[in-house]
Amino acid sequence: MKGKMSGRILISIIGVALTLWGFGDLALGIWGDRATAVITSIRRQGGERDDAGPGRYTYQIGYSFAAADGSRVDGSFTEIQNALYQKADGTATIAIRYFPAIPRINAPEKNTHLSLRQPVLIGAGVVLLMLVKRKHGVE
Questions:
Q1: In which region does residue 54 sit, left (phi positive, over 0), alpha (psi from -120 to 50) or beta (all else)?
Q2: Do 80 and 139 reside in the same domain of the chain?
């Protein structure tokens, strides 16, 4: 009984997180302020991917920007690209969007445009929450 309860709680947390992630990206695109961030680090994670196309790698890209209040905010995102041999020298930039009240909530601008990604995240989160609710017998 305790295992079932902890499983439901875990799935509920994942469902809520996916839903908030999808809505958060949409909200950043609509209400977030735009800023230019400087690329501070580029790190390749793991080896070559097992995708159909050879030479694809997963990169963790770090960036830093100045918020409207003057504070410096750091962030990062993951991206899949072809083999890349580039060093973060402080000259490369990326457009990001952030909430002025909470600058730690930010994302690359390309992730905040309406695309298939947000509805899929929201839908997956809602489905997980519905499954937990239905399995529990609450309707």
A1: beta
A2: no
Distance in angstroms (rounded) separating the CA atoms of residues 31 and 38: 22
| pLDDT at site 3 | 66
If asked whether residues 20 and 42 sit together in one domain, one would say no
Nearest to 34 by CA among 122, 119, 113, 116: 113
Q: Which position has the higher pLDDT, 90 or 95?
A: 95
- The range of the structural domain enclosing residue 139 comes to 1-31+114-139
Q: Are residues 103 and 134 in the same domain?
A: no
CA angle 90, 92, 98 (to 5 degrees): 95
Rounded Cα–Cα distance for residues 13 and 88 (Å): 36
Q: What is the dihedral of CA 107, 111, 113, 117, to 10 degrees?
A: -130
State how far the Cα of 23 lies from the Cα of 96, in Å rounded to an integer: 17
